[in-house]
């Protein structure tokens, strides 16, 4: 006689394979925590998530996917910054060449004319104070250093007039950077006033 099936028996259910989910999670963690290597493990986390999804969706694999994507993006940004830094360090990229040439001063002066030839610079300082200046002296500092050294005597400058100043500064990547202070007195005034300015220009 044929044996009768037990109506109380439960059907045996296969446990989904979670090996791919585990690998995806581990690869995602490595991608998030280990620079550069994370580029590879981030991709692997996505690959194993897809394999696990084909078998059975799994929360562990989803976590691996999220960590892998975050790690992959983070590593790509890190790699980009590292490459740019190395290029700049070895002098291949010179951001200075993209900067505009300019000479600027604070009121009551204007510095619209300038010329840089080698290590020598000549700039024209115009007076827009609305009054004559009985005296003016300019002290120059090279680079980003504070102005120092012997003041350059600009002499008296009439209202609307200008005076020239010449100085020397070493070039940096073919450009000159200089900052300066101007001490001046208005005609009929015994009080000294101060203004500042800067020059940034490529040498001819």
Largest sheet composition:
5 strands, antiparallel
Named CATH topology of the largest domain: Immunoglobulin-like
What CATH architecture of the largest domain do you see?
Sandwich
Global Rg: 35 Å
How does the overall form come out from the CA principal axes?
rod-shaped
SSE ordering:
HHHEEEEEEEE
Give the class from helix and strand content and strand pairing: alpha+beta
What is the end-to-end distance? 110 Å
* Residue share in β-strands: 25-35%
Helical region count?
3
Low-confidence stretches: none
Number of strands: 8
Estimate the helix proportion, in percent.
Answer: 25-40%
Mean pLDDT across every amino acid position: 85
Query: How many domains in all?
Result: 2
Strand order across the biggest sheet? 1-8-7-4-5
What is the CATH C-level name of the largest domain?
Answer: Mainly Beta
